[in-house]
Amino acid sequence: MNNYPHPIIAREGWPFLAIALVLAVAATIWCATWSILLWIIALFVLQFFRDPAREIPQDAGAVLSPADGRIVKVERVNDPYVQREAIKVSVFMNVFNVHSNRSPVDGTVQRVQYFPGKFVNADLDKASTENERNAVWIKTTDGQDITSVQVAGLIARRILCYVKAGDVLARGQRYGFIRFGSRVDVYLPLTATVKVAIGDKVSATTTILAQL
């Protein structure tokens, strides 16, 4: 396992966890009945913001899943961010998944594009084009284009992305976070061989989505 340079509980969740714990402790002191509910909420916040290290497959040409979740779409589409025909693989993340996003490949960020939008259920097809989203176009070390798009969901109201054009990413490297349920779309070259199917459960970094 690589030396993962991030805390097990994501920094993005520290303020939420602190508030939940303070309220739970206060309720325990003043009202034991209410404290049960607040401790459950605190445990939910704790599990939501967990950010464990993952084994990183070293298979040549492997495209890794950028998120935990379930495959909801595998189809040939137009990649609107790079203007090409591509294969889109969509990963739906529910509130019980790890929401840290990882780079699917080794490569250099060509462009980062943010689009404001709606907050419909991320499980729906129209979420890919209508919801708030952030697209990261990566060119692999052998010159192939991969687009990883963070899509906000029904509850999600904040997409965080920590990279910019020119940054060099390693496969499995943490590059962003989406709070409270969302989706990540990965656009692949038409020559890629997809290794997952609709309904499959995938894990960020450890699951290979496709082979270039």
Give structural notes:
The structure is a single chain. The protein is elongated. The chain has 212 residues and is an alpha+beta fold. Strand 6 and strand 7 form a beta hairpin. Helix 1 runs antiparallel to helix 2. It has two domains: 38 residues; 150 residues, Glucose Permease (Domain IIA). It is built from three helices and 14 strands. The chain has an eight-stranded antiparallel β-sheet. A three-stranded antiparallel β-sheet has the order 1-14-12, with no helix packed on it. The two termini are 23 Å apart.
Name a few traits of the molecule.
14 strands, elongated, 212 residues, three-stranded antiparallel sheet, alpha+beta, eight-stranded antiparallel sheet
CATH architecture of the largest domain: Distorted Sandwich
Largest sheet: 8 strands, antiparallel
For the termini, the CA-CA separation is 23 Å
Q: CATH first level of the largest domain: which class?
A: Mainly Beta
CA-based shape: elongated
> Which residue ranges are poorly predicted, with pLDDT under 50 across at least 5 consecutive positions?
none
Q: What percentage of amino acids are in beta strands?
A: 35-45%
Tally the helices: 3
Number of strands: 14
CATH-wise, what's the superfamily of the largest domain?
A: Glucose Permease (Domain IIA)
CATH topology of the largest domain: Glucose Permease (Domain IIA)
Helix content: 10-25%
Q: Strands of the largest sheet, in order across it?
A: 9-5-6-7-11-3-2-13
Order of helices and strands: HHEEEEEHEEEEEEEEE
Radius of gyration: 18 Å
**Category from helices, strands and their pairing:** alpha+beta
